[in-house]
Amino acid sequence: MTNIGLTQPNRTSHRIPWLFGLGYILVFLLLDWASYIRPLQGLNITPWNPQPAVAVALLLLNRRWLWIVWVSLITAELVVRGNPADWLVVLTSTAALSLVYAAIAHSLTTRMDRALALATQKDLLWFTGIVMTGALLSGVVYITAFSVAGLGPSGPTYEPIVRYWIGDAVGLIVLLPMLLVVMDPLRRATLLETLKSRQWWAVAVLTCLLLWVVFGPGGQDHFKYFYLLFVPVVWASAKLGVPGAVLASGLTQLGLIFAVQSVPNEDLTVFELQVLMAAVTMTGLLLGVAVDERTRAAAELRGSLRMAAAGQMAAALAHELSQPLTALSNYAQACQMLVTDAPGLQPDHRDQLVEVMQRMVDDANRAGNVIKRLRDFFRTGSTHLHLISPTAIVREAVQVHLRRADALKLRMESQIQDNLPMVWMDPIQIAVVLRNLVTNAIDSAAATSSGDLVVIRAYVTDGELLIEVKDNGPGVGTARLQTLFEAGPSDKPGGMGVGLSICRAIVEAHGGRLWAEPGSEGCFRFTLPVESENHSEVKNA
């Protein structure tokens, strides 16, 4: 039995869970304790500071959590470094650092790609400039706060500022890219696959071997062979892209910290090694981003070729089917007239036949419009936008698939937020997207004995309309997620392999996004921008 439930979806609270906040503080303290080595002149300046990267990552998730960043900084001062000499200085300096971290997070969000996954070289250049500037600003405000209180260094101020800058910059450059990768669903899936690959384990073994060669027994000058550590990072970046670059750089940094603690070195030498570590990381990131861009360009080229073939086919189908569909509609209308005037028919039978004929007319017209709109989209990428209620589109998509869901003994549920705003969209093209996703969800749920449910949700979040299609089928694996929206061979018998790529192209032409969530169950989501109420013109893109 198919059920349609119209309910208000649960909205996620913006309040930070206390368990999550406690976990963040514990991680922050652990990193601060592990990196609290060789503090300079009592100012607690260390060669490597990973804590800012964690703080910036937290603020990228939600700016409202600035207060917990401040609490973690104060707690670290008390737990890791002991009772401070001047609480006013500590409160002032930690508050200033919190604001600097918030400024870094805001700048990254403004200047980089929305996914924050270091997808392009432009993103990497912005990332480098922002974190280097932010690290320098952190050093200036921290040292200035202590100097004004008379607790600053006895010598020139620029030296501790430079060392603070190096420590924060290295921590941000090495750790923050890994956190950005983990925060992006697609990059996270790629990272997990990278950890399972033989190439990564070969890189890890080579990195450990070279660390032993560089810092092993035999003298204190082996750091001059540090350039050997470029080899595994470059190898990982060239073969595995950005995920390989961040993993190799992270492993190298851990080995470097362990070596610095194990082998006697002067503080100045330690900071020089950290500068070299930043150079290694940047080299790996530059190469990894270039490799990823080349891979995406090749995939987009293959997809464009298949999309062009699909466009030619759509144009041919529109030409060949327009006349038969028109004829079918005319025949159905003629049948309606004949049935109406036919003697001897029962009134209820006559009404049923007229209704069936009308459905034939409607479906023939709908098929013709879909073919025409897809043909126009393939030719010029045009969308004829109208102010439409998304509720009607979602309900129609559910109604169309009810009979098939019943035949497969599946339940379909729709959860639509009350009073959804009107949205500018091409109703025919968005209906194609939604029907494609629902069809795939039904196929997925029917493919396993445990699957029996398909849910379509629609609600507004963060100024966008979010439509979600979920099923309790087998879901999308992390390996498949990487190529899911690329035009290629179809998993379905007789499929062309361009359905999802066409859907993504349509959604992006509307200014939205379409993506899949990896997991044990299927979940596809796409967004459409919600326009202001006073926007009255019908837009054609």
UniProtKB/TrEMBL annotation:
Location within or outside the cell: Cell membrane
Reaction it catalyzes: ATP + protein L-histidine = ADP + protein N-phospho-L-histidine
MF GO annotations: ATP binding; phosphorelay sensor kinase activity
Topology in membrane: Multi-pass membrane protein
Main location group: membrane
Parts of the chain that traverse the membrane: 16-36, 56-80, 87-104, 124-149, 161-180, 200-218, 225-248, 268-291
Keyword field contains Iron: no
Domain Histidine kinase: start-end pairs: 316-532
EC number(s) given by UniProt: 2.7.13.3
One cellular component term from this protein's GO annotations in UniProt: plasma membrane
Protein name: histidine kinase
Superkingdom as given in the UniProt entry: Bacteria
Translocase among keywords: no
Keywords: ATP-binding, Cell membrane, Kinase, Membrane, Nucleotide-binding, Phosphoprotein, Transferase, Transmembrane, Transmembrane helix, Two-component regulatory system
